[in-house]
Amino acid sequence: MSVSKDYIVPDLYCNESAEDVVHSSDANISVQHFHENLDLSSDEESSIDVAFDSEVDQFLDYSELKRRFCSSSGSVTSRIEVVNWMLKVHSYYNFRPETAYLSVNYLDRFLLSHSLPQGKGWSLQLLSVACLALAAKMEEISVPFLLDLQIMEPRFMFKPKTVQRMELMVLSTLKWRLRPITPFDFLHYFIAKLEGFGNFRSESYNNVISQASDIILRTCRVMDFLDYPPSAIAAASVLCLTDQYVDQISGGFHQRVSRVRKAEKMLQPHEAEN
């Protein structure tokens, strides 16, 4: 099958600008202030503590993967293409944001351990189909058939048996660890720190969740964001939307997400340093 021009992105990850990911002007959300008193139960606080500790244990060094991709323009373009394809399929089926994020997470973690054959674009496409299928099975109530998942003009089509064999290879490589800590594990926690967003059912709260989720998914396209832990990406997305700064937060939170400032600057490259 021919490749749709919609999937060709001219910029390479090595040279891409983070300003293409998001601007604070994209969100029309009133400025709020962080406060220290959270309306969270002790169980929820304990869960957040576990998430913070777990992300440290699972954080991987993607420098070698980035070096490998950035050393070859063809490899970088191929990753852009398959990530864009996964996000388009995610949008078509209205999957949960977590599904899209996990599919890219599986892809990058697999590639961290395996080098695919050079010059064979079908192998990366097959991997992307398998990763998206696994993520959908983890997050979605209704999962399309494997053939129905291969829409939006992919470069290659694969028989279900072929995809299933690739799924098993991914599962083995990831050691069946399909529930990593993601930025979505921290979103509710950080938004709860915003004054005026304590009501989880309010329209403003849901707007922040939706727009922050969009920002997080956009970071999947940019390999530089692999350098940041999930909590930093989640916090930076909320800070961007609400025009807040990490200096306004003190105590253990600031120490835990000390890399938020750098992640936030990547999301808002034109914002003055505070």
Quick recap of the structure?
It comes from Ziziphus jujuba var. spinosa. 55% of the residues lie in helices and 0% in strands.
Task: Looking at this protein, list some descriptive labels.
274 residues; mainly alpha; Cyclin A, domain 1; 2 domains; 12 helices; disordered N terminus; disordered C terminus; B-like cyclin; Cyclin-like_sf
How would you characterize the overall build of this protein?
- The protein has 274 residues and is an all-alpha fold.
- It has 2 domains: 125 residues, Cyclin A, domain 1 (Orthogonal Bundle); 113 residues, Cyclin-like (Cyclin A, domain 1), CATH 1.10.472.
- 55% of the residues lie in helices and 0% in strands.
- It is built from 12 helices and no strands.
- Helix 3 runs parallel beside helix 5.
- The longest helix has 20 residues.
- It starts with 41 loop residues before the first helix and ends in a 7-residue tail after the last helix.
- The N terminus and C terminus are likely disordered.
Blueprint (SSEs and pairs):
Elements: H1 42-58, H2 63-70, H3 73-92, H4 97-113, H5 121-139, H6 146-149, H7 160-173, H8 184-192, H9 203-219, H10 230-242, H11 252-256, H12 260-267
Helix pairs in contact: 3-4, 3-5, 4-5, 5-7, 8-9, 8-10, 9-10, 10-12
